């Protein structure tokens, strides 16, 4: 079953968290809360010691998770926990070193067995993707790729021809992190990529408020991805699981409502 088939029938809310942050038990609660509060797709980052694409908030989450003993095995275990409770699509965000330390064939096989639906190897360009595409096809795991504001149209076509699930549109040049305003490049990026492909387009990097989400969907995004704002809530509530659940639930519910268009503009609330 392809769990992506119906998820983009309406604008989708994609929620990111770091697997194992701040510890295995709390990470399971975070994942469950994100899903129960309305996430259409769960994106799990496998902690890495040198996450060059991530800003300080997610870097600190990686450090907390690694210090708490997070591994690739524990990330797969978290996916299995999610799969026992929900059929929501699960995407892994991972760096090349993690995949190749385990071996691509084994990594994809174990990811499939755990219940993973898509894998984004964030530092792997399309030109090097042949190293994993055969395993993605064999397992049925969608190969997800990023497109940035500087990606030329011909390269967008090349990426889309090999991608599955959705295209991850990076709204700005730089690393992940919460921003006050949506990048000026974000909306033109959605429009320019739409001219090259019919694939679902999900916008990420810097999205933190209901206003950001509504702007992205109004410009034609099929989904929005929120990471740092979620991870920041987890960070603020280390040691306070109940407070974390309450704040996460409220934030995700509001963002999901904005994505599907049920929050009036005059009732907008900024990111927590």
3D structure, described in words:
- The protein has 272 residues and is an alpha/beta fold.
- The chain has one domain: Alpha-Beta Barrel (TIM Barrel), CATH 3.20.20.
- The protein has eleven helices and nine strands.
- Strands 5-4-3-2-1-9-8-7-6 form a nine-stranded parallel sheet.
- Helix 5 (104-114) runs parallel beside helix 6 (130-139).
- The longest helix has 19 residues, at 241-259.
- The protein is globular, with a radius of gyration of 17 Å.
Secondary-structure element pattern, one letter each: EHEHHEHHEHEEHEHEHEHH
Largest sheet: 9 strands, parallel
- Please, what is the average pLDDT? 91
What name goes with the CATH superfamily? Answer: Aldolase class I
User: What portion of residues belong to β-strands?
Assistant: 5-15%
Work out the count of structural domains: 1
| Unreliable segments of 5+ consecutive residues | 174-178, 262-272
Structural class: alpha/beta
CATH fold-level topology: TIM Barrel
Cα distance spanning the termini? 36 Å
Q: How would you sum up the global shape?
A: globular
Number of helices: 11
Strand order in space, largest sheet? 5-4-3-2-1-9-8-7-6
Please tell me the CATH architecture by its name. Answer: Alpha-Beta Barrel
CATH class: Alpha Beta
**Cα-atom Rg, whole angstroms?**
17 Å
């Amino acid at each position: 079953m392809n769990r992506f088939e119906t998820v983009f029938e309406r604008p989708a809310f994609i929620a990111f968290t770091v697997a194992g942050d701040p510890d295995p038990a709390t990470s399971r609660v975070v994942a469950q809360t994100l899903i129960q509060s309305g996430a259409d797709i769960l994106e799990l980052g496998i902690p890495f010691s040198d996450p060059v694409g991530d800003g300080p908030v997610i870097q600190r989450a990686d450090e907390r998770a690694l210090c708490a003993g997070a591994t690739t095995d524990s990330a797969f275990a978290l996916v299995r926990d999610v799969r026992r409770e929900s059929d929501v699509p699960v995407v892994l965000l991972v760096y090349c070193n993690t995949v190749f330390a385990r071996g691509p064939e084994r990594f994809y096989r174990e990811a499939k067995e755990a219940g993973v639906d898509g894998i984004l190897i964030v530092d792997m360009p399309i030109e090097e993707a042949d190293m994993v595409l055969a395993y993605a096809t064999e397992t049925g795991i969608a190969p997800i790729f990023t497109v940035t504001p500087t990606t030329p149209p011909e390269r967008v076509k090349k990426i889309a021809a090999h991608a599955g699930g959705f295209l991850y549109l990076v709204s700005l040049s730089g690393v992940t992190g919460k921003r006050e305003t949506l990048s000026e490049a974000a909306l033109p990026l959605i429009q320019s990529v739409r001219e090259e492909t019919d694939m679902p387009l999900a916008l990420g990097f810097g999205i933190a408020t209901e206003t950001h989400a509504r702007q992205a969907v109004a410009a034609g995004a099929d989904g929005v991805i929120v990471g740092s704002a979620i991870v920041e809530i987890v960070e603020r509530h280390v040691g306070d699981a109940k407070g974390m659940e309450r704040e996460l639930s409220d934030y995700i519910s509001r963002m999901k409502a904005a994505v599907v268009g049920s929050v009036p503009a005059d009732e907008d609330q900024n990111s927590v």
